[in-house]
Amino acid sequence: MSFKNKVAIVTGAKQGIGLGIALAFAKEGCRVVVTDIDQKGAEKTAKRIEKLGVKAMAVACDVSKKEEVDLLMQQTIKRFGRIDILVNNAGIYPFVPFAKITEGDWDKLIDVNLKGTFLCSQAAAKQMKAGGKIVMISSIASLVGFEELVHYCASKGGVNGMVRAMALELAAKKINVNAVAPGAIETPGLSGGMAADAKKQMAVGIPWQRMGKPDDIANAVVFLASEKAEYITGQVLVVDGGWILR
Ligand SMILES: NC(=O)c1ccc[n+]([C@@H]2O[C@H](COP(=O)([O-])OP(=O)(O)OC[C@H]3O[C@@H](n4cnc5c(N)ncnc54)[C@H](O)[C@@H]3O)[C@@H](O)[C@H]2O)c1
Fold first, then answer.
1. Nearest atom, ligand 1, residue 141 CA
2. Which UniProt key words apply to this protein (predicted)?
3. Is 5 helix (H, G, I), strand (E, B) or coil?
4. Is CATH 3.40.50.720 the classification given to domain 7-239?
């Protein structure tokens, strides 16, 4: 796969799945704009990429704020002159029982997971002059229900809908739009505070008998962002070790 001269933006790339995706692109020789709400975290990831001999830039950006997203795109164009790939990875998933979700909880989660994905995609697509690839990080929670995640399931179901509708509109510009829907992946956000026993317990329910790693997701993202996936658009690729097959 050739990512020579390409530029990828990865949101929420301080840690977890976003960090894995940013490093995977760098290993393919792709220049990476590492962005996160946490500036120091983004800088740390960018430094790791530069150690691989690949150019990277760290930009602080809250994906739910239009001015910050517009600035992210401007800074990317100023530094690298182009945007080829956008990975909408930034997301939050606070567990709250349905009856206790406040209006504020709902608005915050939808702002980050759904509006953030919309703002970044619209702003990046404008700059994809020679075609491009947009990959969303959805979730198996877009396809099956999870207790205490009603707002999250709604947001990721929304992301899948956006993938299909955007893929239709952006086909004329040769921009592929797809999603990867991860199962349970070991990240600071999900398993950071989990005891080893709880992780083992979770693995028992997964046909592949283990939780996923950020690399499992990054490999799928790199494929969807490559020329090998040129004729694939509007799809949601489940990467979950078989969890939702039962
Ligand atoms: N870990 C899993 O099992 C799993 C499963 C399915 C889907 N996902 C999805 O994968 C993505 C990454 O999850 P993770 O487990 O790596 O999470 P994580 O909490 O470990 O990391 C998320 C990153 O996003 C950043 N972020 C949060 N709000 C942001 C905002 N408003 N703007 C910019 N950056 C922001 C955080 O600072 C953090 O670096 C999310 O979209 C999540 O919904 C994760």
1. 6
2. Oxidoreductase
3. coil
4. yes
Distance CA 204, CA 211 (A): 9
What one-character DSSP code corresponds to residue 23? H
Among all chains, which residue has been given the structure tokens 């693995």?
203
Residue 84 structure tokens: 């080829």
CA distance 88 to 135: 6
CB under 6 Å to ligand 1: residues? 11-12, 14-18, 36-38, 41, 61-64, 89-93, 112, 116, 137, 139, 182, 184-185, 187-190
Given ligand 1 and candidates 72, 159, 187, 215, which is best to mutate, with the most ligand atoms within 8 Å of its CB? Answer: 187
Cα gap 23→17, rounded to integer Å: 10
DSSP character at residue 32: E
Residues acting as catalytic residues: 152
Domain ranges of the chain: 7-239
* Closest ligand 1 atom to 186 CA: 1
Contact at 8 Å (CB) between 36 and 10? no
Phi, psi (deg, nearest 5) at residue 75: -65, -35
- pLDDT tens by residue, the chain, 246 residues: 789 999 999 999 999 999 999 999 999 999 999 999 999 999 999 999 999 999 999 999 999 999 999 999 999 999 999 999 999 999 999 999 999 999 999 999 999 999 999 999 999 999 999 999 999 999 999 999 999 999 999 999 999 999 999 999 999 999 999 999 999 999 999 999 899 999 999 999 999 999 999 999 999 999 999 999 999 999 999 999 999 999
